C-alpha cells in the first residue's frame, strides 16, 4: 500500500468517476494526499460503489466516504432511451416526464427532437421560463415558444443530449418538489454499506434538511445503522438561508457547478463571499467544490487565478476543497491533488504565522 505522504492543513476531498474507480487509481489519489472521497450517486453503479467502499474500508479505514445524492436536481429524464446530438441553431422540444409519452405519439411525424425532463407538469405550471441550461450552465437553449409543458427552444451551440444530463431552469421553485424516491433508496443503500457521510444536494433551508432527517431516522431505526449528514448549498435560497441551514448540520459544501448555473457565473464570487462572511467564526466546516484545479486537468498545472482563488478562500475561512471533474473524468487527478495539497500547506503556514504575529501584536 502507498503511504499517505503528509497530512494537509485543509480537508481535501476527491470525486471518484470513470477515470478513478479502479483500486489502483484510488490508491494513487490517497498517496497524493486525499482523506475523503465523494461518490456521485448519479454517475456510479451500485455494484461499483459496493466494490469501492469495500476496498477503501478494508485498506484505508481512516479515509472517509461521502455519498452525494442527487436531490431536487433537474435532469434529462431516464425515459429518454437513446441520446442524440443537437446542432447549433436547431430547434427542439423540452417537456415534462408525465407528458413525454403522449407528446412523442403526437409528434411522431415531426422532425423535432423531444427532450423529457425528470420533473412533473405541476412544477413548471405558471412559471416564466426564458432559457434552459445544460451542464452547469455551459450550454444555453433559448425559449422560442411555449404551450403549457411543451417548450420549444433553440440551441446556442452543438450539444449531446443523454439521459441524466443536468439541466437548469433558473426560476424553478424547489420548495414544491417532494424528496425524490431515488434519494431515499440511495440513502438506505449508503447506510447499509457503511458509507460515512451523506451529502444532501440542493439544500435551500433548514426545513429541507429536517425533511431528509425524518426519512433517515426512520431508515436508521429499521436497519440499525447511522450516517453523518452534510448539506450542499447551490441555490440562491440556500445562500440566503445559510445560517438557518447551519442549525441542522455542521458541514456545508458549496456546489459551485450548480450555483453558477442557478445564480449566474458572474455572481459566483459574491455568493461565495457572502457564505464566508456568514460562517466566519461559526465553528462550522465550509468546503468549496468544483472548478478548483481545472487547469491541471487541461494543461497539467494550475492557473494563476486558481491559486489566487484558493489563497483568498483560505484567508476568508474556507476549511476544505472538493475536487469534482478534476479527479472523476480527468487522468490528471493525482497531479491536481498534489498541487492542491502543496498550495494549501504553503498558504496555511503563511496565514498561521501571520495570525500569530498579529495576535502577539494585539497583546
Ligand atoms: N460515470 C460517468 N459517466 C459519464 N460521465 C460522467 C460519469 N461520472 C461523471 N461524469 C461527468 O463528469 C462530470 C463531473 O463529474 P462529477 O461526478 O464531479 O459531477 P457533477 O458535476 O457534480 O455532476 P452532476 O451535476 O451531473 O451530478 C459530470 O458533469 C458528468 O457529466
Ligand atoms: C459538486 C456539485 O454538486 C457542484 O459543484 O454543483
TrEMBL record:
<dbReference type="GO" id="GO:0030955">
    <property type="term" value="F:potassium ion binding"/>
</dbReference>
<keyword id="KW-0547">Nucleotide-binding</keyword>
<protein>
    <recommendedName>
        <fullName>Pyruvate kinase</fullName>
        <ecNumber>2.7.1.40</ecNumber>
    </recommendedName>
</protein>
<dbReference type="InterPro" id="IPR015813">
    <property type="entry name" value="Pyrv/PenolPyrv_kinase-like_dom"/>
</dbReference>
<dbReference type="InterPro" id="IPR015793">
    <property type="entry name" value="Pyrv_Knase_brl"/>
</dbReference>
<keyword id="KW-0479">Metal-binding</keyword>
<keyword id="KW-0670">Pyruvate</keyword>
<keyword id="KW-0418">Kinase</keyword>
<dbReference type="Pfam" id="PF00224">
    <property type="entry name" value="PK"/>
</dbReference>
<dbReference type="InterPro" id="IPR015806">
    <property type="entry name" value="Pyrv_Knase_insert_dom_sf"/>
</dbReference>
<dbReference type="InterPro" id="IPR011037">
    <property type="entry name" value="Pyrv_Knase-like_insert_dom_sf"/>
</dbReference>
<keyword id="KW-0808">Transferase</keyword>
<dbReference type="GO" id="GO:0016301">
    <property type="term" value="F:kinase activity"/>
</dbReference>
<dbReference type="InterPro" id="IPR001697">
    <property type="entry name" value="Pyr_Knase"/>
</dbReference>
<comment type="similarity">
    <text>Belongs to the pyruvate kinase family.</text>
</comment>
<dbReference type="InterPro" id="IPR040442">
    <property type="entry name" value="Pyrv_kinase-like_dom_sf"/>
</dbReference>
<feature type="domain" description="Pyruvate kinase barrel">
    <location>
        <begin position="10"/>
        <end position="328"/>
    </location>
</feature>
<dbReference type="GO" id="GO:0004743">
    <property type="term" value="F:pyruvate kinase activity"/>
</dbReference>
<dbReference type="GO" id="GO:0000287">
    <property type="term" value="F:magnesium ion binding"/>
</dbReference>
<keyword id="KW-0460">Magnesium</keyword>
<keyword id="KW-0324">Glycolysis</keyword>
<comment type="pathway">
    <text>Carbohydrate degradation; glycolysis; pyruvate from D-glyceraldehyde 3-phosphate: step 5/5.</text>
</comment>
<dbReference type="GO" id="GO:0005524">
    <property type="term" value="F:ATP binding"/>
</dbReference>
<keyword id="KW-0067">ATP-binding</keyword>
Amino acid at each position: 500500500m502507498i503511504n499517505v505522504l503528509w497530512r494537509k492543513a485543509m480537508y481535501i476531498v476527491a470525486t471518484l468517476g470513470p477515470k478513478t474507480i479502479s483500486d489502483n487509481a484510488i490508491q494513487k489519489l490517497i498517496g497524493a494526499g486525499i482523506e475523503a472521497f465523494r461518490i456521485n450517486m448519479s454517475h456510479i453503479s451500485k455494484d461499483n460503489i459496493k466494490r469501492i467502499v469495500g476496498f477503501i474500508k478494508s485498506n484505508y479505514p481512516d479515509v472517509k466516504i461521502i455519498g452525494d445524492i442527487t436531490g431536487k436536481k433537474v435532469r434529462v429524464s431516464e425515459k429518454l432511451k437513446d441520446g442524440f446530438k443537437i446542432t447549433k441553431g436547431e430547434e427542439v422540444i423540452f417537456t415534462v416526464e408525465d407528458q413525454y409519452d403522449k407528446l412523442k405519439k403526437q409528434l411522431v411525424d415531426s422532425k423535432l427532437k423531444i427532450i423529457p425532463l425528470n420533473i412533473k407538469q405541476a412544477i413548471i405550471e405558471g412559471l416564466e421560463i426564458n432559457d434552459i441550461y445544460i451542464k452547469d450552465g455551459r450550454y444555453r437553449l433559448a425559449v422560442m415558444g411555449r404551450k403549457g409543458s411543451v417548450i420549444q427552444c433553440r440551441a446556442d451551440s452543438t450539444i449531446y443530449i443523454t439521459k441524466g444530463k443536468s439541466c437548469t431552469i433558473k426560476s424553478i421553485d424547489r420548495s414544491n418538489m417532494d424528496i425524490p424516491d431515488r434519494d431515499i433508496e440511495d440513502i438506505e443503500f449508503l447506510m447499509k454499506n457503511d458509507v460515512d457521510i451523506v451529502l444532501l444536494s440542493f439544500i435551500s433551508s433548514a426545513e429541507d434538511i429536517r425533511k431528509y432527517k425524518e426519512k433517515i431516522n426512520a431508515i436508521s431505526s429499521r436497519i440499525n445503522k447511522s450516517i453523518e449528514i452534510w448539506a450542499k448549498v447551490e441555490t440562491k435560497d440556500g445562500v440566503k438561508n445559510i445560517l438557518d441551514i447551519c442549525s441542522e448540520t455542521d458541514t456545508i459544501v458549496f456546489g459551485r457547478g450548480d450555483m453558477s448555473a442557478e445564480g449566474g457565473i458572474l455572481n459566483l464570487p459574491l455568493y461565495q463571499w457572502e457564505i464566508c462572511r456568514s460562517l466566519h467564526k461559526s465553528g462550522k466546516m465550509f468546503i468549496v467544490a468544483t472548478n478548483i484545479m481545472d487547469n491541471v486537468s487541461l494543461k497539467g498545472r494550475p492557473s494563476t487565478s486558481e491559486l489566487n482563488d484558493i489563497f483568498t478562500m483560505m484567508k476568508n475561512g474556507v476549511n476544505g476543497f472538493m475536487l469534482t471533474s478534476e479527479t472523476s473524468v480527468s487522468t490528471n487527478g493525482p497531479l491536481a491533488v498534489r498541487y492542491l495539497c502543496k498550495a494549501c500547506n504553503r498558504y496555511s503556514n503563511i496565514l498561521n504565522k501571520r495570525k500569530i504575529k498579529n495576535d502577539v501584536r494585539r497583546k
